[in-house]
């Protein structure tokens, strides 16, 4: 038998080592030791980690790579970012939006990031909707791009958002978005959640709402989301993004809320890079981290994913399309430094995010799509520690990106000539 691709001697995220992965017709057909067969291409993983591709379940592609247009965010604050986005929106053009998004997708592929959910601001125009619908089709061979109709200025607060959200969905946007804490009153926020859930239920769509992205412990719209999820029976088709107010809530109410979220079956997305940067601007000391209660949500059985949110845009001057950078930040700010917790942070940018996005055929197992990343690391924890080099990125059984292994040449008497950072992995006995 001849395969299209055969990866030899791979380590998998679950700890299995010495595994061969055989691919035919864009699918994984075997994962086992010592496969004896020919293949059109053979890759020796040399014992390094082969993972399903990285996933970013929360991003804003309409703004990405726009940093500096029309000016730079010099203060680095949320308020200046909001003002800048207001200045930038009248300058947006279809072609510029498409070009920036395609450039970002090039970067994403190089980082092994092959699935992205992007929110699109539809508050006062659908120019970004049309541009990103075009991008979705153009990148379809190599990136799964999901699009969210996002009334960024408020579903009710923005005069045109109600009509434009409907039109965006009619044009082919597949997810209903919202931002209840940005409405003028708490009651208006609650009403917006109810209205958006009704739209999603009637159309059979998923829901992903920016929810309680606030330092106000009384911002509790995620409670309404959980109730509406149960009422409409939407379960894991619903996602609450950010939920940063939970960081500031009293522990009794948070324990009740987390149980409600778990009961509903909805997903939660935290965005570590942005949450810890933009939250707590009014604090002196102690300063709140702003990240939602990731360990507690996970302990309750909630599917928690990690998103990048922004990359070189009005709100965030940094970013690199690297989901391992996102996981690395979550490990630190969430104080998730046990071996199991760090491994879970790796899952939060891979398998957990695949569940959030509802991706079919994701994983490293027979029958799964042959989408994989070969990393210069021995394990998920090591991948996070190193922000490991993506040696090969594979889509549908074909290598679409390669990066040379990271190594440094030394000129030190009596010391090695080459240093490979991945060779410093500790030997940890498995229980």
UniProtKB/TrEMBL annotation:
The record ties this protein, via InterPro entries, to: Amidohydro_3, Metal-dep_hydrolase_composite, Metal_Hydrolase, Metallo-hydrolase_Enzymes
Q: What residues does the Amidohydrolase domain cover?
A: 41-400
- Give TM regions: none
What GO molecular functions are on record for this protein? cytosine deaminase activity; isoguanine deaminase activity; metal ion binding
Q: Which GO terms describe its biological process?
A: cytosine catabolic process
Q: Does the keyword Protein transport apply?
A: no
Protein origin, superkingdom: Bacteria
List keywords of the entry alphabetically: Hydrolase, Metal-binding
The answer to keyword Hydrolase applying to this record is yes
- According to the UniProt entry, the coiled-coil residues are none
Q: Which Gene3D superfamilies match?
A: Metal-dependent hydrolases, Urease, subunit C, domain 1
Q: Which NCBIfam families match?
A: PRK07572.1
What is this protein's name?
A: Amidohydrolase family protein
Q: Which organism is it from?
A: Acidisoma silvae
């Amino acid at each position: 038998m001849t395969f299209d691709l055969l990866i030899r001697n791979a380590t998998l995220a679950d700890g299995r080592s010495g595994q061969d992965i055989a691919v035919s017709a864009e699918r994984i057909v075997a994962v086992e030791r010592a496969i004896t067969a020919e293949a059109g291409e053979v890759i020796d993983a040399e014992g390094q980690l082969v993972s399903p591709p990285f996933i970013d379940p929360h991003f804003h592609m309409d703004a990405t790579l726009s940093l500096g247009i029309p000016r730079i965010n010099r203060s680095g604050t949320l308020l200046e970012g909001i003002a800048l986005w207001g200045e930038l929106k009248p300058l947006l053009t279809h072609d510029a939006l498409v070009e920036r998004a395609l450039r970002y997708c090039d970067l994403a592929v190089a980082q092994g990031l092959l699935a992205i959910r992007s929110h699109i601001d539809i508050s006062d125009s659908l120019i970004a909707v049309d541009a990103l619908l075009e991008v979705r089709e153009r990148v379809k061979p190599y990136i799964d791009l999901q699009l969210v109709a996002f009334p960024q200025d408020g579903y009710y607060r923005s005069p045109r958002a109600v009509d434009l959200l409907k039109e965006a969905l009619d044009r082919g946007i597949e997810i209903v978005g919202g931002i209840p804490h940005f409405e003028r009153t708490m009651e208006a926020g609650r009403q917006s959640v109810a209205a958006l859930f009704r739209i999603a239920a009637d159309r059979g769509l998923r829901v992903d709402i920016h929810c309680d992205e606030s330092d106000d412990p009384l911002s509790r719209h995620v409670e309404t989301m959980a109730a509406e999820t149960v009422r409409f029976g939407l379960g894991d088709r619903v996602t609450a993004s950010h939920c940063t107010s939970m960081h500031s809530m009293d522990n009794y109410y948070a324990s009740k809320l987390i149980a409600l979220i778990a009961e509903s079956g909805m997903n939660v997305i935290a965005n570590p890079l942005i949450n810890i940067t933009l939250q707590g601007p009014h604090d002196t000391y102690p300063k709140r981290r702003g990240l939602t209660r990731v360990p507690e949500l996970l302990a309750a059985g909630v599917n928690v994913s990690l998103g990048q949110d922004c990359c070189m845009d009005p709100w965030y001057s940094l970013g690199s399309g690297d989901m391992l950078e996102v996981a690395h930040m979550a490990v630190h700010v969430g104080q998730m430094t046990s071996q199991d917790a760090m491994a879970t942070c790796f899952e939060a940018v891979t398998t957990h995010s695949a569940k959030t996005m509802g991706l079919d055929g994701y994983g490293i197992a027979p029958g799964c799509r042959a989408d994989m990343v070969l990393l210069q690391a021995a394990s998920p924890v090591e991948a996070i520690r190193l922000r490991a080099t993506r040696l090969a990125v594979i889509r549908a059984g074909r290598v679409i990106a390669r990066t040379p292994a990271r190594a440094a040449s030394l000129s030190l008497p009596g010391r090695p000539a080459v240093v490979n950072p991945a060779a410093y992995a500790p030997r940890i006995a498995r229980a």
